[in-house]
Amino acid sequence: MNESERFWSKVDKSSECWEWTSAVTDRGYGHFKLCGPRRTVRAHRWAYAASIDEPLESLRGVVIRHTCDNPGCVRPDHLLPGTHKNNAQDRENRGRSRPLIGESHPRSKLSDGQTGTFWRKV
Q1: Distances in Å between the alpha carbon of 26 and those of 13, 72, 78?
Q2: Is the distance from CB of 32 to CB of 7 less than 8 angstroms?
Q3: Domain count, the chain
Q4: Is residue 86 part of a domain?
Q5: How far apart are the first and last CA of the chain?
Q6: At 37, which CATH number?
Q7: What's this model's pTM, rounded to 2 decimal places?
C-alpha cells in the first residue's frame, strides 16, 4: 500500500467533513506517519499538499486553516492556506479567542490570589 492509499484508508468520508480516524493530538488534529523518514505530520497538511500536488516541504511557513472549524477534517476543499495572522483572525471571527487575563497572561507578575490580597488591603 503506498502512502496515499494508507492515508485515505484512515479517512471517513461519510459526512460533510472527512474525518481523520487514526491518531489525533489532544486538540483533535490528525497525525499521519510518513513512509520512510521517522516523522509525523498533521493529517490536514498532508491532505492539502496532496490536493495541490506539492511536496510537504513547499508548505514550510504556511498555516493550513480549516474553513469548517473542525480540526479532524482532512477534506481538501475545507482547507485553505494562510498565515498565523489569518489563523488568529479566523479564531477571533468564530468567537474562539479568549483574552488572557489574570495569572494566565504571559506578562502576569502576580497570581490571582496575590491580586485578591492586594485589593483587600487597599
Answers
A1: 22, 11, 21
A2: yes
A3: 1
A4: yes
A5: 70
A6: 3.90.75
A7: 0.76
